[in-house]
Amino acid sequence: MTRHLLRDDDLTAVEQAEILDLAVELKRDRWAQKPLAGPQTVAVIFDKSSTRTRVSFAVGIADLGGSPLIISTANSQLGGKETPADTARVLERQVAAIVWRTYAQAGLEEMARGTRVPVVNALSDDFHPCQLLADLLTIKEHKGELAGLTLAFFGDGRSNMAHSYVLAGVTAGMHVRVASPDTYAPRDDVIDDADQRAKETGGSVTLYTDPLEAAAGADVVVTDTWVSMGKEEEKLARLRDLGAYKVTNETMALAASDAIFIHCLPADRGYEVDAEVIDGPQSVVWDEAENRLHAQKALLVWLLRQQ
């Protein structure tokens, strides 16, 4: 059966751990596996601009012996005359996998239903599972075992990043705190799904409106940009609504003494995080950015093995 990664809980706890362990191996020996030798081609489709996603997938596919085919939807029929399902039927006869950085989660789901090759969500409005694999790899490197750690997310709880932290964190057995105003709380259905997964893993999700309470004793402190791509007109409102949730030195002082700070980047210094934090000794954001490469390579290897 073809496996896809469209949202973080498409992976069980065991499967997530397998991919992270494989990422550790591939980081140690970068060219150890060549499942795409040939070279086989992987289609990497972009509706949105990108730095880390574009570079890490292009380099990772090449590392695995393959050829990345970078496609801009502005220069293709996808999203115009052709449906995601029809595009998938064309691509599956020529590529080994499809990676898509897009807007609507529904498009990814339609594409996955229409193809026999793995489809990977490289970002949607709802979830960012590839980023979370990289983040979990980074946390694992710096903190050891993931299960039992407390991760505190600050800012927009309805963002794709918050939703992915909730699902992936709980899958890893972590205790996830989301600090946001009530009007920015994660979607109820995402929390319900996380609560169900938590029954299997021992993780948990707790929502806070008080950012200082959420920070207390946290092992991992996280934030994300407050203004998502394509929503720049919301910046002033979000600065007003989310200002109290900026990660500062005070936030880090309330967390555990050995807490680490992560941010998926790009960061808007002075808005969601102070420069002193992101550039400070507890920040591991550059390890995190590199780990997109290793985590995504591991994901592709794992998905291809399921074929």
Automatic annotation (TrEMBL):
The enzyme's E.C. designation: 2.1.3.3
The protein's annotated pathway: Amino-acid biosynthesis; L-arginine biosynthesis; L-arginine from L-ornithine and carbamoyl phosphate: step 1/3
Keywords of this entry: Cytoplasm, Transferase
GO molecular function per UniProt: amino acid binding; ornithine carbamoyltransferase activity
Main subcellular location of this protein, as a coarse class: cytoplasm
Pfam families according to UniProt: OTCace, OTCace_N
Repeat as UniProt keyword: no
Localisation per UniProt entry: Cytoplasm
GO aspect biological process, one term: L-arginine biosynthetic process via ornithine
Catalysed reaction, written as an equation: carbamoyl phosphate + L-ornithine = L-citrulline + phosphate + H(+)
Superkingdom field: Bacteria
Domain Aspartate/ornithine carbamoyltransferase Asp/Orn-binding: 148-303
SUPFAM superfamilies the record matches: Aspartate/ornithine carbamoyltransferase
Residue numbers binding L-ornithine: 160, 224, 228-229
Cellular component terms per the entry's GO annotation: cytoplasm
InterPro entries hit by this protein: Asp/Orn_carbamoyltranf_P-bd, Asp/Orn_carbamoylTrfase, Asp/Orn_carbamoylTrfase_sf, Asp_carbamoyltransf_Asp/Orn-bd, Orn/put_carbamltrans, OTCase_ArgI
Domain Aspartate/ornithine carbamoyltransferase carbamoyl-P binding: 3-141
Binding residues annotated for carbamoyl phosphate, in chain numbering: 50-53, 77, 101, 128-131, 264-265, 292
Top-level enzyme category: transferase
Annotated HAMAP family: OTCase
Annotated family: Belongs to the aspartate/ornithine carbamoyltransferase superfamily. OTCase family.
Protein name as annotated: Ornithine carbamoyltransferase
Gene: argF
